[in-house]
């Protein structure tokens, strides 16, 4: 079981000052930054692109960029994101493209890879890919927007993936994303999650050091 890892989501930071958002994370000693990339097609919203990650690197950020591609054609963009400074690139299972080849390409580019499931997608949709990935991201809201309510009905899917991981002697991280705060994060931890995306709850937390250290102890 991996130690709990908090991954604050840049989507909830001030978009006029994303470098300051990244510094807020790093100054707490948190090492991951979740970067939500939206194409207005796979999800009904737009966010930012590879140039944003590259600009954060130029501004000095050493954070681990956990890059969540919510794109209909992610295979077309893994290389620009790797070159821009992504450390991990996760791609959704739902669109039709060559998932296996794209996961392999992400590793060839020197990044860790991840596969993502929407709330309506069953665990068995990614079962065959589990030996090929560094991370499985289980969406706990329908992706597209921050600030939505956590979907408790997703907890059994997290446990299913944890059980398969143990039974097959695999070691991928199990990440949750959407409506995560300390309470829902603890429920996900009990179900088997080890990596916690937090957008709204992190950037609105009045006492961020306390928030981060509570997550580290989940
Ligand atoms: C949802 C994104 C999430 C989002 C989470 O489409 O993938 O990463 O930033 O935001 P909160 O934590 O506000 O639910
Ligand atoms: Zn995300």
Most strands sheet: 8 strands, parallel
Poorly predicted runs are none
- CATH fold field value: TIM Barrel
Sheet with most strands: strand arrangement: 1-8-7-6-5-4-3-2
Number of strands: 8
N- to C-terminal distance? 12 Å
Which percent bin holds the helix content?
Answer: 25-40%
Taken from the alpha-carbon principal axes, the silhouette is globular
Structural class: alpha/beta
Can you give a write-up of this model?
The chain has helices spanning 18-27, 50-58, 78-84, 99-108, 155-167, 182-191, 200-203, 208-216, and strands at residues 5-8, 32-38, 64-70, 88-92, 112-117, 135-139, 173-177, 195-198. With 218 residues, it is of the alpha/beta class. It has one domain: TIM Barrel. The protein starts with a strand and ends with a helix. The structure holds D-xylitol-5-phosphate and zinc ion. Zinc ion binds next to β2.
Compact overview of the structure:
By secondary structure, the protein is of the alpha/beta class.
Summary tags:
218 residues; TIM Barrel; 8 helices; alpha/beta; 8-stranded parallel β-sheet; 8 strands; binds D-xylitol-5-phosphate; binds zinc ion
